[in-house]
Design goal:
By secondary structure, the chain is α/β, with parallel strands linked by helices. Helices cover 43% and strands 14% of the residues. Mean pLDDT is 89; it is low at 1-9.
Length: 287
């Protein structure tokens, strides 16, 4: 559970593997795949049991637990103060790997590092072309596309706390990507959503290799099939999905690439390119 440093102080084991992304970029898809593969499922793992694989870093229930009482999640200073305790609680189980989902930017908020290195084993960062991501983002948060484009270009963009989650710090899409992918102090695998769509077996293999899990082809094929958007949409129709926001019609939509060519106005396309062009070029979204 602990390591002893040279000074004699006990430090927590580095076991968190962050599953990180901006919202609506493939994080849940990746978690569903991992759940099906690691559980060696012969039938699709129910989407409402995917949390068994790991947990999120912003679940209000865990902040109540470490505080020993029900707290006001709108008290930002308090939830930030409790964040280290929440993360220490996650790594305190002595596991080699603890998967933790996050949409937080890898920065410091009010003096508190959101992704502290001392608990981090490695990270998997999934990114998606913002021209497509913004369409899913708008649907997810019941916002107009114009509002979504504006929000992902703001440095103070975030998700407000509610009864289920504490505040999440997103920032600009391009700053979020840079924060995770530029000179991380821990091993990082960066995967594009579009590559997962085009070649899921190849790219999910990279995910398994990154976390040090042997790749079995039959098991891989089965996990890819069970985590397809068709399979996930069918599950959501039958059982619903606990992670779907109240205001969203559904969580799993089409999972397509290139939809922006039909659904984004030229004005909004140009704004996204102005706001995020350098990062889009770095990851092959702009020539």
């Amino acid at each position: 559970m602990y390591r002893t440093s040279l000074s004699g102080m006990k430090t927590m084991k580095k076991s968190i593997v962050w599953l990180a992304s901006y919202p609506k970029s493939g994080n849940t898809w990746t978690r569903v795949f991992l759940a099906n593969y690691l559980m060696n499922a012969k039938e699709p793992v129910p989407i409402n049991e995917v949390h068994r694989l790991g947990m999120g870093d912003s679940i209000a229930k865990t902040y109540h637990m470490v505080a020993g009482r029900k707290i006001d999640v709108k008290n930002i200073e308090l939830t930030l103060k409790l964040r280290d305790k929440v993360l220490r609680g996650i790594v305190g189980n002595n596991a080699d790997i603890n998967f933790v989902k996050t949409h937080n930017i890898r920065k410091v908020a009010r003096g508190v590092p959101l992704i502290p290195e001392q608990y981090t084993k490695s990270a998997i960062y999934i990114l998606r072309n913002p021209l497509d991501m913004v369409l899913s983002y708008a649907r997810h948060y019941s916002a107009s596309v114009e509002e979504a484009v504006m929000r992902i270009g703001r440095e103070d963009n975030g998700n407000a706390p509610d009864e289920k989650t504490v505040a999440q710090y997103l920032g600009k899409w391009s700053d979020h990507v840079d924060s995770w992918t530029k000179n991380p102090p821990f091993p990082l695998l960066t995967i594009r959503y579009e590559d997962l769509l085009a070649e899921p077996e190849k790219n999910f293999t990279k995910v398994l290799e990154h976390i040090g899990v042997p790749v079995d082809q039959d098991r891989l094929n089965r996990a890819v099939e069970f985590s397809s958007f068709k399979a996930l949409s069918e599950q959501e129709k039958k059982t619903g999905f606990v992670e779907k926001p109240k205001q969203a019609e559904k969580f799993f939509n089409k999972g397509q690439s290139g939809q922006w060519k039909e659904d984004l106005s030229e004005e909004l396309i140009q704004k996204i390119k102005r706001d995020h062009g350098n990062v889009m070029k770095r990851f092959g979204y702009l020539s």
